[in-house]
């Protein structure tokens, strides 16, 4: 047998490591799912049953339509709607503002062009926590507390997305620009017919990343909302968990947690192909 055709005795090791990693990540999720299908008494007992129970439909229906009765939380359906609106507005807002600002920096020549870009880039060095107090003060002065505008507008600017679009636009050949000028295409026509189609895989990849970013927001909704009807799903899960001797309906908390995972997972699964292409390929 040729040495190149001889089976590797250690070929199983990478697969074993991969499956071990999957088990470590998936086991807590499995426990959360099992807890979401059990009655409260079964969740509280030690050890908790390791197989799903018979209360799957009732627990999820209660979570979606009623929420936690002990913690007086809003229905999960309402919180998921708030999170969906917040995630989509943040995602589309970031992409729109970033692609326009990167297009202006790359394809227009105006005084202070690079200074404007570096001012945008420098904001990457400031963590969100540093900007929380002044941002909250501005939103409060504008009367945007407990509004979707207050939840989303302060978060739609993105230096990271602007940087990524700029780096991509710099790879577009100059011949495309010259050909567009010869054909009489203006800046808007060039952007719509050339730049935007070339950027679709990058937009798709950023959509996945930014949607998860917007969906998982916790600190900003915690500060900007005082009305329970404006709670997002991540904030709602935290409020459903009691502190000290407060009673917690863990079966509903786990059901809410599983439901909170579904939209991001669905986005990743549906856009996986575009996401990978946006990271490793270009359309040029």
SSE layout and pairings?
Blueprint lengths: L11 H25 L3 H5 L11 H10 L10 H32 L5 H10 L5 H14 L6 H5 L6 H11 L4 H9 L4 H12 L1 H16 L3 H6 L8 H8 L9 H21 L1 H9 L4
Summed up:
By secondary structure, the chain is mainly α. The protein has 15 helices and no strands.
What do you see in this structure?
This protein has 284 residues and is mainly alpha-helical. It has a domain at 77-230: MetI-like (MetI-like fold). The chain has 15 helices and no strands. The two termini are 45 Å apart. The model has no long low-confidence stretch (mean pLDDT 86).
List keywords for this structure.
mainly alpha; 15 helices; MetI-like fold; 284 residues
Radius of gyration: 24 Å
Number of strands: 0
- List low-confidence stretches: none
* Content-based structural category: mainly alpha
The backbone outline, from C-alpha atoms, is globular
Number of helices: 15
State which percent range the strand residues make up.
under 5%
The CATH superfamily name of the domain at 77-230 is MetI-like
Kindly report how far apart the N and C termini lie: 45 Å
Largest sheet: none
- CATH T-level topology of the domain at 77-230: MetI-like fold
User: What is the average per-residue confidence, as pLDDT, rounded to a whole number?
Assistant: 86
């Amino acid at each position: 047998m040729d040495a190149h055709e001889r089976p590797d005795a250690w070929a199983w090791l990478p697969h074993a490591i991969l499956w071990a990693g999957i088990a470590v990540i998936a086991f807590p999720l499995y426990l959360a799912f099992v807890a979401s299908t059990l009655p409260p008494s079964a969740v509280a007992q030690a050890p908790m049953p390791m197989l799903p129970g018979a209360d799957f439909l009732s627990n999820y229906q209660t979570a979606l339509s009623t929420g936690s009765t002990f913690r007086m939380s809003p229905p999960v359906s309402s919180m998921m709607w708030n999170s969906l609106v917040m995630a989509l507005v943040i995602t589309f807002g970031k992409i729109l503002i970033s692609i326009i600002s990167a297009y202006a920096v790359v394809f227009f020549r105006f005084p202070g062009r690079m200074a404007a870009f570096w001012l945008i880039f420098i904001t990457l060095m400031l963590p969100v926590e540093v900007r929380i107090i002044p941002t909250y003060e501005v939103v409060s002065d504008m009367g945007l507390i407990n509004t979707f505008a207050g939840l989303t507008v302060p978060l739609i600017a993105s230096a990271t997305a602007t940087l990524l679009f700029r780096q991509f636009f710099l790879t577009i050949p100059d011949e495309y620009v010259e050909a567009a000028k010869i054909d009489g295409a203006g800046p808007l026509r060039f952007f719509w017919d050339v730049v935007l189609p070339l950027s679709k895989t990058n937009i798709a990849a950023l959509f996945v990343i930014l949607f998860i970013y917007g969906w998982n927001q916790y600190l900003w909704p915690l500060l900007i909302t005082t009305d329970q009807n404006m709670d997002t799903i991540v904030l709602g899960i935290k409020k459903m968990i009691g502190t000290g001797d407060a009673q917690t309906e863990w079966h509903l908390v786990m059901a809410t947690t599983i439901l909170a995972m579904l939209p991001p997972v669905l986005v990743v699964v549906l856009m996986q192909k575009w996401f990978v292409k946006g990271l490793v390929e270009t359309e040029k």
